[in-house]
Amino acid sequence: MELSEAKYFFWERLKLALSDERQPIPGILEANKVYESVYYREVQRGCRDLKYKLVKDASDRFALDYYLKTDDYSTHKRIEADGNLVELENFEGQFGWPVYDDKAETEKEHQRIREHNQMVYAVLKDKGFEK
Fold first, then answer.
1. φ and ψ at 125, to 5 degrees?
2. How is residue 31 annotated by DSSP?
3. Cα–Cα–Cα angle for 117, 121, 122, nearest 5°?
4. Are residues 61 and 32 in the same domain?
5. Contact 59, 84 (CB under 8 A)
6. N or C: which end of the chain has fewer CB within 10 A?
7. pLDDT along the chain (131 residues), means of 10
């Protein structure tokens, strides 16, 4: 797939993956460059912050990695050259952290979540999706 084909292919699939055609997406798409699109939805009074970049996958084919943050959650995914959507590293505990009867077990799980989220932050920062 040529870069010009990839641009249209991934742009269309990103709109489908986001289930929101109103998300502003720039028309230009260069490989390995982070793009950012932020907009506010008046109906939900919420912010959607989208970062994405065209990358080469392990098979040297184009893929599009994206990271979406809203007021409520975040998601980090890849759209592969065949159109498949793949879950990538993402933060845990976004909807609450577990509490167990055993306080030691609770603390152990909370520590695991903190360490996982630090790893996720490092991955997102390395991609240019976090500062």
1. -65, -40
2. B
3. 120
4. yes
5. no
6. C
7. 75 82 69 84 72 86 92 92 94 92 96 97 96 87
